[in-house]
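Discussion board: Methods & Data

I've been asked by a reviewer to show the raw model output for two of the constructs in my manuscript, not just the figures. I'm not sure how much to include, so I'm pasting the format here to get opinions. Each protein appears as its amino acid sequence followed by a line of discrete structure tokens. Is this the kind of thing reviewers expect to see in a supplement, or should I convert it first? Here is construct A:
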Amino acid sequence: MIPLREDASCPLCGRFSHPSVVEPVVEKDPYAIVRCAVCGICFASPRPTPAAMAEFYERYFAEDPLAGYEHYREGEAWRARVARHRLALLGRFIAPGRILDHGCATGVFLDEAVNAGWEAYGVEPSSAARSLILRRAPYVKVLPPEDLATLPDGMFDAVTMFDNFCYLHDPIGALREFGRLLRPGGVLLSIGALDHGPAHRAPEPGITHTFYYSPRSVARLCRAAGLRVLMNRTIVKNANNPGKHPFAWLFQEVPWVRNLFFRQHCFVATPEGGA
């Protein structure tokens, strides 16, 4: 039997979940969101265990109706367009080289990266999604998460992660690993969920965010991981999963309206001491 829940410590300051150092925010049965009374970051405690997360992701793209992600395979033209916007943003900071997309899903972003001149690698926990990528794009190298540690230091010019930073169990540890994999002057680009009240309360299908971050906490997390922040702000969200956003298709060409519905946080960072 896979253990489903575990108590957690603050992902920033590391204090164990305890009534004296955390404040309750909202129940999200069977999990709960609390706020660290020391640093203010919100996180899940209890939260899904790594084993429960791995089992969930294994079903993510496997046509399991319990996972609720059938819509992900729909609207690939939309996701390709989003990927091109994200690559244009990345291009403000670094020229094409070797890129690693963490949580690459079905590989749409990797396809667009190759088209833009990148040598593309992906990391994806779902074996079904990895198999799909290898069938549709054999020129892309895709790895399970446990293989990250086998890659050499400084291998990549860029690391990207979209909509998955908030699911990491150890964000500082992950940021340190990304920093290790980046060459001097390489950049990490992340776009994902903001820390705000509606996000704490929004229903999530089958799993929950392990923590919710803000621009302030991003700066502190990066500093603790040995990264220097180059960009740290809220941007308009190009909805990655249009099936989850009923207004996405209707308002995609009206930026000021889209702004009302789809906002995410973006940060770009580079290893301290890099060129």
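Construct B, same format:
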Amino acid sequence: MAYKIFIDGSSGTTGLRIRERLAVRPEFTLVTLSEADRKDPAARAAAINGSDLSFLCLPDAAAREILPLINEHVRVLDTSTAHRTAPGWVYGMPELHGTREKLRTAARVAVPGCYATGFIMAVAPLVQQGLLPADLPMTVYGLSGYSGAGKAGIAQYTARDRSGALDSPRPYGLTLHHKHLPEMQAVCGLSCPPLFCPVVDDYYAGMEVTVPLHLAQVGRTAEELAAALADYYRDEPLITVHPLNTAPDFLPANTLAGKDTLEIYPTVSPDGQRMLLISLLDNLGKGSSGAAVQCMNVMLGLDECEGLAL
């Protein structure tokens, strides 16, 4: 069966990567618009309504503006932050239990954020199973390549006359307000958002998200938490949970650059009192375009891993 697919915002980083992935798959016909029509909301809406499935690869405001023009039954995947906690939208993380079934019939799917993916994959299963208290104060650190900053950020980092300030890691979001926090809290079922410190560094792609835990506050052992994560993702082809304390001495954040998989390394201190849950992923893969294609495959009843880099 052939499917008509439209990508609204195909010139952005995520949209371009989705287009590249789908262009080589014979089961898809990509709907395109002229330069003038790409700026016309009515023309864009007509393309979306006439397609089997569409991707919104737009800024948040633009994603919200186009939605009222889209018929209710039309299937849409939104890669922006706009609808990740909105009523009526399915959060597009098939590996979370019960989500894959919802995706098969969903008309509105929100693709998870990159940092949020690393955090939620490590934390949500443990909260769901009562192994992490929902009211536990949590902290998360995230390190990302500069491709996560979009076209403007990539241009800054690749400019010949770039600022020397770009040579070192740059923490940001220092007022503790980041666009991924609402989904981190909501999807994990936490009573308050985590303290989140994201950092962008001078490499292109790849992400490392680290969640530290004081196990006395948790009331569980590192062995219990690591085993629960491994069991939860046991049959998931894109997720690997490594055995406790098998992380290398140095864990490069770009380890999975170019892949659509995610790996979790649980580690514990010698006294068994402190633990790290470390997620590795590609911010452009499982953190954006790869996740979007995975959700599309599920929604259309195709092989979930088709077109993904494993």
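Answer (T.O., handling editor elsewhere):
This is acceptable in a supplement if you add a one-line summary per construct. For B, something like: The chain has a mean pLDDT of 96.
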